[in-house]
Each structure stands twice: as C-alpha cells, then as structure tokens.
Amino acid sequence: MAKVLCVLYDDPIGGHPDSYARDGLPELSGYPGGQTLPSPKGIDFTPGHLLGSVSGELGLRRFLEERGHTLVVTSDKDSDRFERELAEAEVVISQPFWPAYLTAERIARAPKLKLAVTAGIGSDHVDLDAAIEHGVTVAEVTYCNSISVAEHVVMMILSLVRNYLPAHRTVLDGGWNIADVVARSYDLEGMDVGTVAAGRIGLAVLRRLKPFDVRLHYTDRHRLPAEVEEELGLTFHPDAAAMVPHCDVVTVNAPLHPETEGLFGDELIATMKRGAYLINTARARIADRDAIVRALDSGQLAGYAGDVWYPQPAPADHPWRSMRHHGMTPHISGSSLSAQARYAAGTREILECWLDGTPIREEYLIVEGGALAGTGAHSYSTR
Question: Which CDD domains match (predicted)?
C-alpha cells in the first residue's frame, strides 16, 4: 500500500472555517478551448470549502484510506519529519502556493518516490531533470486555476495603474488628501499591454483586457493562430526583448525554466518605457529580486505587483515586502475557493489513474517515462 505525503499551507489563524461568505460555487461546463473539467470517479468534499489548507486535506483522506493507503498531511516542508516521511513516500502532493521543493538531492533520498503531483499548475518546484533521471512521473492539474490567475492579473494591473492600494490605505488611515493619491493615478485606456507567454493564462489575460481599449502585444514560443491575433488585435513579438520597449504594462505568464529564469534583470528592465508597470504572477525567479527594487527606486518602473516569491513563504525581511510602489500579495492568485474545488478534484483524478494503473490525462503530464511529456513537453525545457 502506498504512502502519500501531502504538503499544504497552514489553516487560518482562527481555525478551519465552519461557515463561508457564499453558499456554493457557480457551475462551469468546461474550460475555454474545450478541455473538460476534472472528472474523478467521486469526491469527498464540498465545493467552495477550504480544501488547500492542512485540515482540508484536498478531500483525499477517506478516498485513500478506504483503499488501504496512508495519507500524511503536513505544512512543515523543511523539517526532519518531512525528510523522514519523504524517504518512505511513493507519492508527494504539493501546491505552488506552499511548495515542497523536490530538489535533486531530495529525490535521490526518496527511493520509493514514483509520482509528484502539483495540486495546481506549475511544477518548477520539482527538479524535472532529477525526476527524469529517477523515473518519477510529474503531473499537475492543468487549467484548474488559469482563469483564477488571469483575473488576479487584471486586478493587479488596475490596482497599480489607478494607484488603488494607496487610495484604500488613505481611507483606512482616516485621511482624505485626494492629490496625494491621484498624483500617481492614470487610466489604462489607450496603453500598450504585453504578455510574456500567451498560453492558457496569458491568453485569458489578453481576452479580459480587450474591452479596456488597450493595444495588446504578446510573445510566446508558440505563435497563436492568425484568427486569434486578428480577433484580439494582437501584435506578436519574437521575444520579450523585442516586446517590452513598446509596452506601458508587461505581465509575465510563463513557466519557470532555463530560458525564463532571471529574464527581467537590469538589462531588460532598462529597455522598458520609463514608468512602465510589471506584473508577475508566474514565478518569482523570472525576475531578478534586487533589480526590481532598483527599478522602483529609480522610477524606471512605476510599479511592480505579483504574488510569487522565492523562497515561499517569503522571509519577513524579503525586500519585496517593503519596496516602493508595489502591490504584492502572498501566493493566492490560483488558490481561490473556486480554484481549490477544481485542483482538489483534479488531484484525485490523477491519483485514481495512478493507483488503478490507467493513463493520466496527457494535458496533466509534465514528466513521464523518463522524459518531458504532455504539457511539460509543450511548456518546459531542461538543462
């Protein structure tokens, strides 16, 4: 029988909720583009409840224990206990918002490990080269929270451009000095907005920005169909270096891999328009931490927002917590209660397939059979 090690973020400070702001979730018929929603044989949770924290357990305990498997759930991903459990685990489940970093060293110390599941999207917390070398299958719940992240991106763009967060802080502090706030407030209308990567999230961002009467740009290793470019009025650029000088706002929606790591450093940021805004809900290491701080201090960037940090959770003294003109959040964009219902169901679907010896959906696969596979082959590169 398998040991499943599941790493989830801590419960709310006041304890796991027994009531919620809304009753249930809207029903979706599918994802844009035709991909179907997760389709496990059953679920043991209530959609709309908090599933991504320790007590939520992604709704997996009854399912696994009734089959005779062992489920270990913890938020402590860097302890001796985690290392001991990992040594015996056949499956590790982790979320991008609270990643259990499966480094090459950890994978080498986990001889029984066969499957690493990302309850969400983005598997860069797993050393994919090591997973390939050791025959570990890596899977994620593709598309489960792509729209959730896209909505967060649009919110952050508007928050920065309209200077919303300082305006809200003025109200909380009992103030009313309008000039202090509007001196950094602009309209998004008429701006040039570009996305680095136009996959599921990037394309969803472009579609949601179209009604704002902006000029839209994108770069991606896979060019979009001509009819999509025409529909949205998109301008394609061969790479980020070619795109960013044209943009007032740049949003990063690419996976982290050798081609994107450190992309937004001093050199690239210097080519952006002075006073541009940069939004990164993809992965923190796509941007150079200190280069972002320098660009905000100098005014080269008017604002930076995102919800991805390195490491996660970010230490209290991380400079992005205190830098100027930022709109940072903890890694929450893809963990709304709506998204949790989908990634919990998708995680169970992946486990059902693995335990029953049936194929995992190709779009969920990142690594299989000692090679990049499925979405992994489309989106990632190895060293």
Answer: FDH
